[in-house]
Design brief:
The protein is α/β, with parallel strands linked by helices. It is 34% helix and 22% strand. The chain has a 6-stranded mixed sheet with strand order 10-9-8-11-12-13, with helices on one face. A 5-stranded parallel sheet has the order 3-2-4-5-6, with helices on both faces. GO terms for molecular function: glycosyltransferase activity. It comes from Pedobacter ginsengisoli.
Length: 302
């Protein structure tokens, strides 16, 4: 799994500024994610910025007091750079090209993407970095079709964790399950919700997920009688890792950093830690176990 954070995006842009032709005088972002990349690039180059629809309409986005002296009438911008955050199939850029083709024949228009796959580079004039798949970006992770091939924790991810007082395995905890507010709000269907919540709280959990429009295919809960049994088992990360191993998922999204490391090491697969906003990768032993499982799976034809 190739992951890029917002910090990575900014770093990739700043270390590749020399790729941008000096004559570029207007940056245009492709909605939606391309606007983030284009805005960062425009800031670093001290250039005016707009979106595709703004460009079509001949409109430059307001840039504040500092940029007022740099803003020119739209007709005077001659060298335009259209920016996407990433290119995969090239369909988004191709769609933009069809909109802009012949619109302003007096302007020279170039196309770029911050992250590209080699197969799609013929659709753009240049790129900042090759980032092959499977890949996922921090700025659109919760709204990516890839979520259907992911495992998700609930507490700390879809909602905040309960406090010690709320986590009484009784009325206070039931009140928490019914009333806790959503935290991250994925807009795509999640493949597997994997939680250390006890099976006896399934109905309350399912009701909360329904009320907050969380779409998912499977809800896998810990089948133990009570909190005391869960604490005695002390297998929080191990339980989640077992589900991750069993199912053909690309990524596990977990809140706790220590559980993230445990899940990654046991499964041999990456885990995204929401608490620290970083990807956690397995140690060498975990990687070896993962590769061994792949070999065995291939040999038995499953």
């Amino acid at each position: 799994m190739n992951y890029r954070s917002i910090e990575d995006l900014n770093r990739t842009i700043t270390t590749n500024l020399s790729k941008v032709p000096l004559e570029i005088d207007l940056i245009v972002g492709v909605p939606r994610s391309g606007l983030l990349a284009a805005n960062l690039l425009a800031l670093h180059l001290n250039l005016p910025f707009t979106d595709v629809e703004g460009y079509i309409s001949g409109r430059i986005l307001q840039s504040g007091e500092r940029m007022k002296s740099y803003i020119k009438p739209f007709s005077e911008y001659k060298n335009i750079l259209i920016v996407e955050d990433s290119i995969w199939s090239g369909s988004s850029i191709i769609n933009v090209k069809s909109k802009l083709n012949g619109l302003y024949p007096e302007k020279k228009v170039l196309y770029t993407a911050i992250y590209a796959v080699t197969e799609a580079t013929n659709n753009i004039d240049f790129y900042f970095e090759i980032c092959p798949g499977p890949r996922i970006f921090e700025w659109n992770m919760m709204h990516h079709d890839l979520l259907e091939k992911c495992c998700f924790d609930i507490d700390g991810v879809l909602c905040i964790d309960p406090t010690e007082d709320e986590n009484d395995d009784g009325p206070k905890y039931e009140h928490f399950l019914e009333n806790v507010e959503p935290f991250f709000r994925p807009s795509k269907t999640i493949g597997y919700l994997v939680t250390n919540r006890l099976e006896k709280y399934r109905a309350l959990t399912e009701d909360w997920l329904l009320r907050h429009n969380v779409k998912y295919n499977h809800l896998i809960m810990l089948d133990l009688p009570d909190k005391a049994a869960r604490l005695k088992a002390n297998n929080h990360g191990g339980f989640k890792a077992s589900v991750y191993i069993k199912n053909d998922c690309y990524l596990f999204i977990e809140s706790s950093i220590w559980q993230s490391k445990q899940i990654a090491d046991i499964s041999g697969k990456p885990v995204y830690c929401t608490d620290e906003r970083k990807m956690v990768f397995p140690n060498s032993i975990g990687k070896s176990k993962f590769l061994l499982r792949k070999v065995v799976k291939k040999l038995i034809g499953k």
